[in-house]
Amino acid sequence: xxxxxxxxxxxxxxxxxxxxxxxxxxxxxxxxxxxxxxxxxxxxxxxxxxxxxxxxxxxxxxxxxxxxxxxxxxxxxxxxxxxxxxxxxxxxxxxxxxxxxxxxxxxxxxxxxxxxxxxxxxxxxxxxxxxxxxxxxxxxxxxxxxxxxxxxxxxxxxxxxxxxxxxxxxxxxxxxxxxxxxxxxxxxxxxxxxxxxxxxxxxxxxxxxxxxxxxxxxxxxxxxxxxxxxxxxxxxxxxxxxxxxxxxxxxxxxxxxxxxxxxxxxxxxxxxxxxxxxxxxxxxxxxxxxxxxxxxx
Length: 297
What we know:
Elements: E1 2-3, H1 10-17, E2 23-27, H2 46-51, E3 54-55, H3 68-81, E4 87-92, H4 95-103, H5 113-123, H6 129-136, H7 145-158, H8 162-172, E5 179-183, H9 186-202, H10 205-214, H11 229-236, H12 242-266, E6 273-277, H13 282-296
Parallel strand pairs: 1-4, 1-5, 2-3, 2-4, 5-6
Helix pairs in contact: 1-13, 3-4, 5-7, 6-7, 9-12, 10-11
């Protein structure tokens, strides 16, 4: 599992690693699953997809919801279906996806479709959804609107908080991960984030969001509740001036990257973790990973 904050270079390192072994990448990124959201999610380029098979990319339309539990179930099926030979490498920065796959599958009981649909209608419009989530689950640690809606849904429709189900899943366990955590000095990471946001905007990120909205996708859709996308939606709605858009995205991305760094330092459990300085070239990092894997596996 190759993990780390946004803009640290995880995908590039995974592609370079394919020069050492045949491999299949499983994307553990909660926004790369959405079709049409390409520029702002840092999806693998067509050349990277041609070089290395990727699973977990372009699965859903942006209006559909996708949970960590569903990712774990899907990823477990992908892993089970792989033919002998390719090395499966999980790559991503969505900590909940990583933990759901590594620690156990969230097996929720059947939820009544009618009640679920009615509740989804309410959560899509409700103000203060995070406060509802915190009251229903004392262990709710915050996050985006989609995570808050999921916390509310599970608590109200199952009678138990989401954290209870997650503890149960962790107790069951499904695999023994071997982590590679890519890290950068804070100043370098901030610089990379700024350069990346500028490139994405220059490549047409705003137009990408405009096209998605033109298909009828709601501005509050789960896929658009993501870094940068929500700022661009605000801009297109007239709430964020063009001259403040880039800095708004950079600021929120840097804050998110800090939370990711903290999460990956403390939430990977007792599994082996190899921490590498991502200022090294992607080829050098790939060589180090291959050497450590051959020595420690």
